[in-house]
């Protein structure tokens, strides 16, 4: 079917940068040659251009529409549509749609000609789209927690804009999204985790009380997930990441290998579902577009994984993730089970994963000298298996961050 100055009947998947769109083209391929990039094959590699353009228009239509259809007012004396509008080239950029092969410019132009509208706006031009709604809600949450109100906000804070979620609404949404995305997992009994401590001159840490979390009275450091005075245990899934998460400078370190004595329920932010393409097939089984929710969880994961300053100062910038963690620790259950911790990507070692467990010294098996009269009361589910002494060099620290 002709569009523009040439006849383009078939287009192949490799003409698109988007994997979901490539898969769609390959799934309906009937031709053995692409009219845009010239690719040929003995197999079916190219689909009808008209079918592909209709698919693209359908996907764009989930988010954008003709301004008139979308309800945008039009005033000739004021220059036309009263709101933000885009041409189709703009829309392709907003949708991150690109055409990497020879013939890409022709394909872009032909698709522009095939779209049902020349001018577009968001589907609801006078309301926030779901991505912006979640981002602005998070920004509002951070501002409230840092500068306005830290306690009892769930009863007293209401969003000034009805499109912005209140802090309590946002907290509930975060973990509803996490549940629906399968981000809560069981860390099985017998899992090994690692914790490192620097050893000064003459020091040698060998006992669980020395290698586990500090007592509450000396837990003075502000962390990304825990404020001063609230004890949590920061560990890693492997020894190198434990060292990278701890070592600010070269020196000797003791690394304790611990084992879990029971199943633990954790929020795993290292294996979130991939962010769906804007051209993904949502399907009838979904009641909603999952993309904004998964995108927001990825943003939260990056917030939690940001590096921290290792000092005794109170860091206001950590407060939002501390509140999120506290809510998870105290208010969230999954199938009747309390949550035991969070797994997140290391900020200090590429590809490393760290874990914060909601555990203090009362959750560790301690050496005999530290066992008080009430020692056997409680849930002691973490046990020290072994201790390894490691020397960290400046070269190691530099290598971990690459």
Describe the structure.
- Mean pLDDT is 90; it is low at 1-5.
- A five-stranded mixed sheet has the order 10-14-17-18-12. Strands 5-9-8 form a three-stranded antiparallel sheet.
- It is an alpha+beta fold.
- It has three domains: 2-122, no CATH class; 130-179, no CATH class; 184-400, no CATH class.
- A hairpin with a 2-residue loop joins strand 1 and strand 2 (6-7).
- It has helices spanning 19-27, 49-60, 67-70, 88-94, 104-114, 130-147, 153-156, 167-180, 208-211, 239-246, 291-304, 319-331, 394-400; strands at 2-3, 6-7, 10-12, 46-48, 64-65, 74-75, 80-81, 86-87, 119-122, 184-187, 192-199, 233-236, 251-260, 264-268, 333-334, 337-338, 341-345, 353-357, 382-392.
